[in-house]
Every structure is written in structure tokens, then in C-alpha cells.
Design a protein that fits this description.
Layout (H helix, E strand, L loop, with lengths): L4 H22 L18 H9 L8 E3 L2 E10 L6 E10 L4 E10 L13 E5 L13
Antiparallel strand pairs: 1-2, 2-3, 3-4, 4-5
Helix pairs in contact: 1-2
């Protein structure tokens, strides 16, 4: 079975469900930030980004849904314009297949929602690019 966006989303839903379970156990009766709506499950990519940035899942890689996922690159935030994205490396240990996915969001300092509220998620491959940089003499 090849690695697809749908398989990645399934694994990330499992990760968010586990995070919710751990948060409920750690803080009983408290608000759970990235609750998964089981009637209409969809990935909260802001929750995925936060999970990789701190807490129980910041010690990458994570193992969910038969996949091994790690955040290998990211860009964006304050003073970097509206561009905001992360690259996830996804491995299937059964088939030894590896794929990379870009979660393409946006950054606005005045936005009410996070940078990945409506992201575009697609497979990418690494390519080299030559860049000319002008430095002060």
C-alpha cells in the first residue's frame, strides 16, 4: 500500500486522538485543545504542528496508523511574511517506502485561527536549487 495524503491524515488523526486521551488523563475536566470530531473527523493541522513542536510527541518520530512520521523542515512565522509550511517525512516500516509531504499554510499576525486552518497537503520531493546571495563588502 503506497503512502498517500489520506494515510498520512489517518495517522495524524490517531496522533491527535492519543494526545487528547493523554491531555484528559493529565488534566481531568479541563479543556482539550485539539478535540477530534468523530462524526466528521478532519485533521487539525495546527494541532499536528503544535504536537511536533512541544509536549509528548516532540520527541520525533511518532508511530501512528502503521506509519512513522517526523517533521523534517518548517518555515514561517513572525517577520517572515505570509509563507508558512512544514515538511513531514512519512515512512511505512512494512514496505520500507518513504514519502515527503508539504503542509502549506499561511501566517497573518492578526488571524484568529492558526497558520494551518485550511492547508494544502501534497507530496513533494527534495530538489537542489542554486541561489545567488548578495553580501555586503
Amino acid at each position: 500500500m503506497s503512502i498517500t495524503v489520506e494515510r498520512l491524515e489517518g495517522a495524524m488523526l490517531d496522533m491527535l486522538r492519543e494526545r487528547n486521551k493523554r491531555d484528559r488523563a493529565k488534566y481531568p475536566g479541563d479543556y482539550v485543545e485539539y478535540e477530534v470530531d468523530e462524526e466528521y473527523p478532519s485533521v487539525d493541522w495546527d494541532g499536528v504542528d503544535d504536537s511536533f513542536s512541544w509536549g509528548d510527541f516532540s520527541k520525533e518520530p511518532v508511530h501512528f496508523g502503521g506509519l512513522v512520521v517526523s517533521k523534517v523542515d518548517a518555515y514561517g512565522g513572525s517577520d517572515l511574511g505570509s509563507e508558512y509550511w512544514m515538511i513531514l517525512r512519512v515512512e511505512d516500516p512494512k514496505t520500507f517506502e518513504t514519502a515527503y509531504f508539504k503542509v502549506d499554510g499561511y501566517y497573518y499576525s492578526f488571524a484568529d485561527e492558526g497558520p494551518f486552518s485550511e492547508p494544502d497537503v501534497f507530496e513533494v520531493k527534495q530538489a537542489e536549487k542554486t541561489v545567488t546571495y548578495w553580501s555586503k563588502v
